Amino acid sequence: MNPVALGQSDLRVSPICLGTMTFGEQVDEAEAWRIMDRGVERGVDFFDTAEMYAVPAREATCGATESIIGRWLKARPGMREQITLASKVAGPSRGMPWIREGSGLSADDIVRSCDASLERLQTEVIDLYQIHWPERHVPAFGTMYYDPQKESSLTPIHEQLQALAGLVRQGKIRHIGLSNETPYGVHEFVRLAEQHGLPRVAAIQNPYCLINRSYENGLDETCHRLDVSLLAYSPLAFGLLTGKFDQFAPTEEGAPKQARIARYESVQKQRWGRPDALAAARRYNTLAREHGLTPTQLALAFCYTKWQVASTIIGVTSVAQLDEDLDAWGVELSAELLAEIDRIRWEMRDPAV
Fold it and tell me: Which residue ranges does the record assign to the NADP-dependent oxidoreductase domain (predicted)?
């Protein structure tokens, strides 16, 4: 895997990123260490985490993932220099008062969160520090439409950028990124950065997979023209695109009870557990088998080979899953198969938006 550049930054990372939100909830520390060791062994030099992880978010596990990574790094002298480390400051609390009180994301919130993440990660600098979701009211996490009547922004984007600039000057972070953002948000962050000499966004981390290609509805043009790289998350749609649950009947809520997503009510109701998302996933999984591929190979190769994607974030619960995901690198999709994928999307659109 050849390294890819993130935006206009000096970051060069592997085109596959190890997502770590399972560490501390679905994955115990010993297995997490084995997964990270195996990832590095196979050429993955880009790790992504967040202050709110593990997922599903709970007060008892908030920050646990960063702490696991920190202990792993401390036990491996010299490893920190080999890894591009990304983390995220949570946006407004969204019902998680253990992260912060109130509905905003102030400059002080950003600084305090960064300091706490640095301590847990046992490092002096975070290479890519991202805002996990916008402070503004935006359609995300299962909602489709912007509603100006729900606007509750307390902290201007300029103020957030100034806080991030202070962290860059102090050497606590190297570059900044966004997550779950909109075309307006990306453009405004870049515009203000260029106007005021503040840090420029290097990357955006948004969902992108066969059953959620909403990134292609205008945000891809925005990021291409502004030179902001996409870090695609949930390429396997929380496991629905692995095909492992195709034989099980869906529950009334959508996802089969055997699927790990069914254990997490908030996640299931947001996007991935919807009945139409499961139905679409099964269509793509069947298409993969008809073309001699596993569903995992089709879903990951789709992300790995799209021009829109700089690096694909894969989250796993075992070394075996990690190997399966990495083995999909290099799988080529024919023009005929890509056309069939587009036909299904035209019919079923983006049910996991």
Answer: 15-344
| Catalytic annotation, pick one of 53, 215, 264, 284 | 53
Nearest to 232 by CA among 120, 309, 144, 139: 309
Rounded to an integer, what distance in angstroms lies between the CA atom of residue 318 and that of residue 257? 20
Distance, C-alpha 215 to centroid of its chain: 13
What is the pLDDT tens value at each position of the chain, 353 positions in all? 999 999 999 999 999 999 999 999 999 999 999 999 999 999 999 999 999 999 999 999 999 999 999 999 999 999 999 999 999 999 987 788 899 877 789 999 999 999 999 999 999 999 999 999 999 989 888 888 999 998 888 899 999 999 999 999 999 999 999 999 999 999 999 999 999 999 999 999 999 999 999 999 999 999 999 999 999 999 999 999 999 988 766 666 666 665 666 666 655 556 788 889 999 999 999 999 999 999 999 999 999 999 999 999 999 999 999 999 999 999 999 999 999 999 999 999 999 99
Say which residue the tokens 């869906």 belong to. 250
Count how many residues are written for the chain.
353
71 and 30 Cβ atoms separated by less than 8 Å: no
CA neighbours closer than 13 Å in the CB half-sphere of residue 141: 11
Coil/strand/helix, residue 202 = strand
Tell me how far the alpha carbon of residue 205 is from its chain's centroid.
5
Q: Hey, is 268 helix, strand or coil?
A: helix
- Catalytic, 53? Answer yes
* Per-position DSSP letters for 109-143, written without gaps between them: HHHHHHHHHHHHHT-S-EEEEEESS-SS--S-TT-
Separation of alpha carbons 207 and 202, rounded Å? 17
Tokens of 141: 């996490």
Sign (positive or negative) of CA dihedral 39, 43, 45, 50: negative
| Extents of the domains making up the chain | 4-242+303-331
Packing angle, helices 295-304 and 319-327, rounded to 10: 60
Whether pTM exceeds 0.90: yes
Our CA angle for 108, 109, 112, nearest 5°, is: 80
